[in-house]
Design brief:
Length: about 350
């Protein structure tokens, strides 16, 4: 029975949903959120569970080996669910080095500390690495899907760093016998998503009557999954996934960017009481992303067949919920767009 779990990146978008799910569903676990609070880390995302007795926050940079070693020594975790990462493709094109530091070196630091701690007693221990479908590269419009057997072919510095971290995880399993499991998920959407990513950026711009930037011709395809369904998959895989295995997670929900944006505009027109078609006037085609992957599509049949996971809602339902959350949480979006949220730590935990 796993007792103490490190969840890294728990102040970010997906990590906050994983923390909430685990802190709520597993009152007997001790959940330690390890996060250094980059621009993407926001403790307000988990405000609602911050005072629960089974939850604790530790401000730590995973690329700092000594800091991580100290925390492994202090808490002696039985499990690690590793989400901390630099996650935005456009930023990786501007500054690849921080992606290498956090995603590659940071992952290696965690793996090494787990290996040392669990060396004599790996029974019941688990290192869960949360990865992305982008490691598989890009698909054509040919009806094929990424499976767990698809050869790695990352294109962006972000996906190259995630691919590298996946290889390190498997290397620690094969070389040292570290008990690991990996999942590769498609594009997530939902509440608390930082508004540099397509869906929250578009929602915010539509609300404020600002142009919606669509890269290239908007023909690129992504496979969208509601973030709470990803958190549910992580829960299932963490507890029941096979040691050393990989699981693909996806919504079987492919959308061309331009079609998605048009749907979002229509939902927003309805919610904001604007005439239908009004928000679509904000669509602005801009220069394409360098090396822009054409299409992602995940085959998650292994996870569905072996562990019984399935997405819980349709894209239309999930988008409605997401839009409602953003419209109801104006303060959150104001704080993250102004950068004000970055004072949260000092206000609540004191200056370091
Ligand atoms: P995010 O950018 O919203 O959050 C990342 C979190 O990691 C932040 O809280 C940040 O402060 C923290 N962090 C960054 N560098 C750190 C460091 N050096 N030390 C400690 N903490 C650090 O990311 P997200 O979208 O929630 O993604 C979480 C994980 O899921 C990532 O590993 C990502 O690759 C993977 N993933 C994301 C998606 C998606 O659609 N967002 C899909 C599949 C997989
Ligand atoms: O597939 C999983 C990945 O999904 C995760 O591993 C990444 O962490 C996550 O950021 C996401 O990557 P994408 O690059 O697919 O997400 P993003 O929201 O940045 O872009 C989605 C699509 O929309 C992509 O084709 C680029 C396009 N786009 C994006 C932005 C920010 C636009 O057309 N305009 C924009 O302004």
């Amino acid at each position: 029975m796993v007792k103490t779990i490190f969840i890294t990146g728990g102040a970010g978008f997906i990590g906050s949903h994983v923390i909430r799910r685990f802190a709520t569903n597993y009152p007997d676990y001790k959940i330690i959120n390890l996060d250094t609070l980059t621009y993407a880390g926001n403790l307000e995302n988990i405000d609602d569970i911050a005072s629960q007795p089974n939850y604790k926050f530790e401000k730590a940079d995973i690329s700092d080996f000594k800091a991580i070693e100290r925390l492994f020594d202090l808490y002696k975790p039985d499990g690690v669910i590793h989400l901390a990462a630099e996650s935005h493709v456009d930023r990786s094109i501007t500054d690849p080095f921080v992606f290498v530091r956090t995603n590659v070196l940071g992952t290696c630091n965690l793996l090494y500390c787990a290996k040392e701690l669990w060396r004599d007693n790996p029974e019941g221990k688990r290192f869960y690495h949360v990865s992305t479908d982008e490691v598989y590269g890009a698909l054509e419009f040919d009806g094929t899907f990424f499976t767990e057997e698809t050869k790695y072919a990352p294109h962006s510095p972000y996906s190259a760093s995630k691919a590298s971290s996946d290889h390190f995880v498997r290397a620690f399993h094969d070389t040292y016998g570290l008990p690991v499991v990996i999942s590769n998920c498609s594009n997530n959407y939902g509440s608390h998503h930082f508004p540099e990513k397509l869906i929250p950026l578009a929602i915010n711009n539509i609300k404020n009557n600002k142009p919606i930037p669509v890269y290239g011709k908007g023909e690129n395809v992504r496979d969208w999954l509601f973030v709470e369904d990803h958190a549910a998959a992580i829960d299932i895989i963490f507890h029941r996934g096979k040691n050393g295995d990989t699981y693909n997670i996806g919504g079987n929900n492919e959308w061309k960017n331009i079609d998605l944006i048009r749907l979002l505009c229509d939902i927003m027109d309805r919610k904001l009481g604007r005439p239908q078609g009004e928000s679509q006037k904000l669509i602005t085609f801009v220069a394409d992303r360098a090396g822009h992957d054409l299409r992602y599509a995940i085959d998650s049949s292994k996870l569905q067949r072996e562990l019984g996971w399935a997405p819980s809602l349709t894209f239309e339902e999930g988008l409605e919920k997401t839009v409602d959350w953003y419209l109801a949480n104006e303060k959150w979006i104001k704080n993250v767009t102004s950068g004000e949220y970055q004072d949260y730590y000092n206000k609540h935990y004191g200056q370091l």
